[in-house]
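User: Predict structure, ligand coenzyme A.
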Amino acid sequence: MRVSRANETDIQALVALNNSYAAQGLTLLRTEEFAYGHLADYRVIRDADGGVVACAALDEYSPTIVELVSLAVTQDAQGLGYGKALIGALEKLAKSRGYEQLFAVSFSDELFVSCGFEHAELSKYPEKIARYTKLDKTEIEVGQKHCFMKKVG
Ligand SMILES: CC(C)(COP(=O)(O)OP(=O)(O)OC[C@H]1O[C@@H](n2cnc3c(N)ncnc32)[C@H](O)[C@@H]1OP(=O)(O)O)[C@@H](O)C(=O)NCCC(=O)NCCS
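Assistant: Predicted complex:
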């Protein structure tokens, strides 16, 4: 398995993969504008034909904190370690960019805990709550998601 960067030609696939889980509340809807603007912040895993089968991205929260967003693996490719590999790759990327903390908001408690993340209070990230409210008002009320944090710096 190889983790690589995303290209402009991947934008539609990145958005489609992420958004395929949005209706279930597992991911937040993302636009092509978001993917285009964050292209350098994505890491992907490809199939033999070069198609994106897994993706995740960094989204700056503050000069010291960055969020891991848009973590998604196609259903056929789940359980193969791709999710873990992407989390590891984004930890490295976050560290190389000088961030101190990587955080994520997710239902996937086991996955993040097994990657060395600790539970954190979402209330420590007030701007995140504001962003969620802007993107999807139901997200915070309905989604009993947990917040995870890992020191990377
Ligand atoms: C959550 C998700 C990203 C995990 O990616 P993945 O590539 O399937 O996960 P991995 O193969 O790296 O497995 C990591 C751990 O997750 C668990 N896991 C993986 N697939 C699982 C499944 N289908 N059911 C239950 N647990 C599973 C395993 O416990 C595994 O731990 P292990 O390495 O100790 O065995 C992926 O299932 C997904 O895209 N889900 C839908 C979208 C989503 O929930 N995104 C998360 C937003 S933060």
